[in-house]
Amino acid sequence: MDIKINIYGVRGSAPISHENYMKFGGNTASLTIRTLENSLIFLDAGTGLKLAETQLDEIADKVFLLISHTHADHIAGFGMSKLSKLNLQKGYEKKKLQIIGPNEIRRSLSKYYDGDIIWPVKFDQSNEQMKTMNGIDYENIIEFSEDNQEIQIDSKTKITLMQGNHPVKHGVVLFKIEMQDLGNIVKIVYATDNEFDHIFNGVVNLEKDKFKSKYIKFVQTADILIAEAQYQKGNYDSMRGFGHSYPEQVIELANKANVKRLIITHHNLMQDDELEIIYQNAIDFAKKLNSNLIVEFAKEGTQIIFEEN
């Protein structure tokens, strides 16, 4: 089986639906990775999850949801998704969804899916008459505990966690997914909502340069780095502290880490023509570095395939 990456949500902060935004797409964070062993990994649960859940049609052996953090643009799609009631889906009757996320992820999801002010049904739904949230393996939710925490999800796939830098209680988690295929390792890193020039006390207790060094080490030689860069270098100072970066910064860091392919995501709510200009500027900046790094902007509907050896 080949490794397949599918992108379904690329916007940051909020979704947008209008023809002037559809070249890149209007949904918030959601993508999938199907592993060599037919494990299906969902990365974040923004509004793009409604499209991403179509991946369930090809029956997976295991299903995982990796949540970077619990700001609304990364979890708003979960409640209405098939993932929350996985065991009610054809072919998944005896399976449950395993969630991996930040420390206190269970409690954080319970605050959003509260059965009251924000959402009509509670995350910890145990009432057999209301099975909306019963497809989750509540007993085996994995929460971030320390940098370089490793989770083996199948015989060929390992996930490594790192604490990122974002103004959200319990922080943001960066995920490195490594799949071994006949001695070759395919390395994919998902690093969203991560700021480098403003350190949030109590989230990342490092100086800026040390945090950047830690990040470079984590993404080192990645085949694909999917990283957010919501702002522009010219307006970054006015947005400092919002927990995001800008293209030139992530390109420089990816280049230092010898990343092969950088896919920039979590786009600001700009129209396609504006975003296209920023995209071209990012490509031009990478060329000035005399880098072999491939730079792209994420688009909904993109599929990337690594063929099995």
Brief overview:
It contains seven helices and 14 strands.
- The number of helical elements comes to 7
- Give the overall shape: globular
* CATH homologous superfamily placement: Ribonuclease Z/Hydroxyacylglutathione hydrolase-like
User: Helix fraction?
Assistant: 10-25%
Structural class: alpha/beta
Radius of gyration: 18 Å
Mean pLDDT: 93
Judging by the overall fold, what is the CATH architecture?
Answer: 4-Layer Sandwich
Describe the strand arrangement of the main beta sheet, using strand numbers: 6-5-4-3-2-1-14
Would you list the SSEs in sequence order as H and E?
Answer: EEEHEHEHEEEEEHEHHEHEE
The count of strands amounts to 14
User: How many domains is the backbone divided into?
Assistant: 1
Main beta-sheet annotation = 7 strands, mixed
CATH class: Alpha Beta
- How far apart lie the N and C ends? 9 Å
Task: Find the CATH topology.
Answer: Metallo-beta-lactamase, Chain A
Beta content comes to 15-25%
Low-confidence parts: none
Description:
- The chain is of the alpha/beta class.
- The chain has a single domain (3-306), classed as Metallo-beta-lactamase, Chain A (4-Layer Sandwich).
- Helices cover 19% and strands 25% of the residues.
- The chain contains seven helices and 14 strands.
- The strands form two sheets. A seven-stranded mixed β-sheet has the order 6-5-4-3-2-1-14. Strands 7-8-9-10-11-12-13 form a seven-stranded mixed β-sheet.
- A hairpin with a 4-residue loop joins strand 2 (30-34) and strand 3.
- Helix 6 (247-256) runs parallel beside helix 7 (272-288).
- It is globular, with a radius of gyration of 18 Å.
- The mean pLDDT is 93.
